[in-house]
Amino acid sequence: MRRQGLKEDIEELLMNLKEKTWGDILGVAVVRPDGTVMASALPREIGEKRFAAMALVVLGTANRVCDELGAGNMVQVIIDGSKMKAILMSAGEKALLAVLASKDANVKSALSEMKRASIEVKKVMAKY
Amino acid sequence: MKIVVFGALNAGKTTFLERASKKELSVKGSYEGMTTSLDFTRLDYNGETVYLFTTPGHRRFDFMWEVLANGMRGAILLIDSTVGITEVDREIGGLIESKGVPYVVAVNKSDLANLSLDMVREGLGISAKVPVIPTSAIYGNGVDEVLHRLMELKNERRGTE
Questions:
Q1: Which residues of A touch B34 (CB under 8 A)?
Q2: In this complex, how many residue pairs, one in chain A and one in chain B, have their CB atoms less than 8 Å apart?
Q3: DSSP bridge pairs for A78
Q4: Main-chain dihedrals φ then ψ at residue B74, nearest 5 degrees
Q5: CA A30 to chain centre
């Protein structure tokens, strides 16, 4: 039997997340705080490295905005495009969870599944 | 007025920003010393409010160079004198030139290495009109001069417009 590593464990979580959201979630990635990809399941046309770097910059900037405005802790960022949505949130201090969702996705349900997944990512990472 | 501090990874952009604003940034967009989003501070220069931004230096985040360059009225290009002129420096120099704004080249970490200013000028392929100033952001040397020269250039340009 193949021995599971951190990358494989995270990939499994990402596949579960995609399955649970019934096609609402088109792609997903877990990104390290330096902007590199830990694991991903993204549509072929999305450049993994570029998406990861952009997700990190946006989340970092949102964090900064929350701090400047005294808005409290940043919870998530939702980019609402006319063709697709991107939803970003932290998964502990050492990772962020970035999701691409269809334009008609049920955001409430996607967010709820993402929150669950981010807790799982945190737990898995603590094991390694 | 928006000024952007550009430079390659680890050139000392965040430290430069802190020295220029005379305060440590309360929140840095960084991870293990590498800026991964942006740093920002506001300072008063002879009654004019200056908004100073730094860009992430890693090529992975190069899309942010263009994003942050949008609307800038001046730029500072920080060179790491312990490394010399790199391809990233040349690329950033080209981006700044293309924006047509006044800029100054700061040859940083001059306390650690003595990079020839002529070589910097030659390596970047810039005209004699662009000031090239040695700095040590960590000790504060040359930081005020860079800002002063940039503001002078901006005011000269404003006078001719």
A1: 34
A2: 47
A3: A87
A4: -170, 160
A5: 5
Side chain identity, residue B21: S
Site of tokens 């979630």: A25
Task: Report yes or no: B58 and B91 within 8 Å, Cβ to Cβ.
Answer: no
List pLDDT tens digits, range A2-36: 557 888 999 999 999 988 887 899 999 999 988 89
CB-nearest to A34 from B29, B36, B37 is B36
For every residue of B29-50, which 3-state class applies, written as one string? CEECCEECCCEEEEEEECCEEE
Rounded CA gap, A108 and B7, in Å?
41
User: Of A39, A125, A20, A75, which is closest to residue A28 (Cα–Cα)?
Assistant: A39
| Tokens representing residue A73 in the block | 């802790």
CA separation for the pair A126, B132 (Å, rounded): 48
Provide the strand spans (E) within chain B.
2-7, 30-31, 34-35, 39-45, 48-54, 74-80, 103-108, 132-134
Looking at CA atoms only, how far is residue B51 from chain A in angstroms? 14
pTM: 0.83
Q: Taking CB atoms and an 8 Å limit, are A56 and B37 in contact across chains?
A: yes
B56 touches chain A (CB under 8 A): yes
Per residue in A57-81, pLDDT (tens digit) is 999 889 888 988 999 999 999 999 9
Instruction: Give the span between the Cα atoms of B55 and A53, in whole angstroms.
Output: 13
Terminus-to-terminus CA distance in chain B, angstroms?
17
End-to-end C-alpha distance for chain A, whole angstroms: 20
Closest CA to A27 of A95, A94, A90, A105: A105
Our CA dihedral for B70, B34, B116, B22, rounded to 10 degrees, sits at 80
Q: Which residues pair with A41 in a beta bridge?
A: A28
User: Does residue A119 sit in helix, strand or coil?
Assistant: helix
